[in-house]
């Protein structure tokens, strides 16, 4: 088993973990990141298609109200561009009435996307860290408190640190990792009853050679109460040279095959666009419920956004050596990219106040 030591061990190399590591490294601290996936980013995942269209299979949008994210993007010199929504959208109110073109209200605050994909933010943060400080493909099994240290263990890695920060979705931490001594019962139960943002989502995308919907005078925006696609948008790139439609598929379809999902997606889109949709070049999807490194089944029924931003996450545990961070724990915009960064900033400040 490989053994390493550091000041701060961070579990999870998603947006919170990487942002926190970025701040801590800038303060001269020794940081190690341990990540169960074989890639960085967590719920930020930009799939680049064969024709180089960046497709967001995870976190996608931001707005000017997301001040923590906007500030970090500016600091890292990362550009954004406006999401194409259009003035009208295809709207399907019910199965008993035909779809129609609905006028959209003026949007005073546009939705923005990151130029080149949300992965640009992940890559830029990671570029400030040393390769030997990031351990991929390491599923954490336990967190054990020592006398003046705390230890994180995977199957073949042991990290001994002064403090540990978990940035995992709280239910994943509470359900999958053996913590010794155990968290207080209230904290453990709240963690297991904290909704994992996007955990039930299915993201879908179709790439096209040309944006045929524009030739029809359509924006690519769809809202349907019938489904199985409740929302879809024009997902062309910042240069408007690569074209795609991207949206959400009802989470009820997580257990059918990829081929079956594509069949029902095309069936719905043909209602709006005709056979033009059959000329798609590539189909991509991500069923987040099947991502074991993001989602695990709840022990009891949990409502959407339940316990997101709960005040218990402002506490530290195991004698002040274990901190719980991540977007779900943020008091501001929990579940969003902005919440992830806000959590990283708050955790950084708490660690520094503790003398790290």
From TrEMBL:
Signal peptide: none annotated. SUPFAM superfamilies: FAD-linked reductases, C-terminal domain, FAD/NAD(P)-binding domain. InterPro entries: Amino_oxidase, FAD/NAD-bd_sf, Flavin_MAO. Residues 15-83, 111-347 form the Amine oxidase domain. One of its GO terms (molecular function) is oxidoreductase activity. Belongs to the flavin monoamine oxidase family. PANTHER family: AMINE OXIDASE. This is Monoamine oxidase. It comes from Portibacter lacus.
């Amino acid at each position: 088993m490989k053994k390493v030591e550091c000041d701060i061990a961070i579990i999870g190399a998603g947006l919170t973990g990487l942002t926190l590591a970025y701040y801590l490294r800038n303060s001269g601290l020794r940081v190690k990141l341990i990540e169960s996936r074989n890639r960085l980013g967590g719920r930020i995942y930009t799939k680049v298609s064969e024709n180089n269209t960046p497709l967001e299979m995870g976190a996608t949008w931001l707005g000017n109200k997301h001040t923590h994210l906007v500030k970090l993007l500016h600091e890292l010199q990362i550009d954004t561009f406006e999401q194409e929504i259009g003035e009208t959208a295809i709207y399907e109110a019910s199965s008993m009435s035909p779809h129609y073109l609905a006028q959209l209200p003026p949007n005073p605050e546009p939705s923005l996307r990151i130029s080149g994909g949300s992965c640009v933010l992940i890559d830029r943060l990671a570029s400030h860290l040393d390769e030997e400080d990031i351990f991929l493909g390491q599923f954490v099994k336990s967190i054990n408190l020592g006398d003046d240290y705390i230890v994180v263990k995977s199957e073949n890695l042991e990290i001994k640190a002064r403090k540990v920060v978990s940035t995992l979705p709280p239910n994943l931490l509470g359900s999958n990792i053996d913590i010794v001594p155990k968290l207080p019962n209230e904290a453990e139960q709240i963690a297991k009853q904290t909704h994992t943002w996007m955990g039930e989502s299915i993201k879908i995308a179709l790439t096209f050679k040309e944006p045929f919907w524009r030739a029809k005078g359509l924006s690519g925006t769809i809202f349907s109460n019938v489904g199985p696609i409740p929302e879809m948008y024009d997902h062309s790139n910042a240069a408007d040279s690569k074209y795609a439609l991207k949206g959400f598929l009802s989470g009820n379809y997580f257990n059918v095959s990829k081929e079956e999902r594509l069949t029902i997606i095309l069936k719905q889109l043909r209602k709006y666009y005709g056979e033009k949709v059959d000329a798609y070049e590539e189909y991509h999807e991500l069923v987040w419920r099947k991502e074991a490194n993001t989602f695990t089944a709840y022990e009891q029924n949990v409502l959407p956004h339940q316990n997101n931003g709960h005040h218990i996450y402002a506490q530290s545990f195991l004698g002040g050596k274990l901190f719980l961070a991540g977007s779900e724990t943020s008091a501001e915009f929990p579940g969003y990219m902005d919440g992830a960064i806000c959590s990283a900033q708050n955790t950084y400040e708490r660690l520094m106040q503790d003398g790290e």
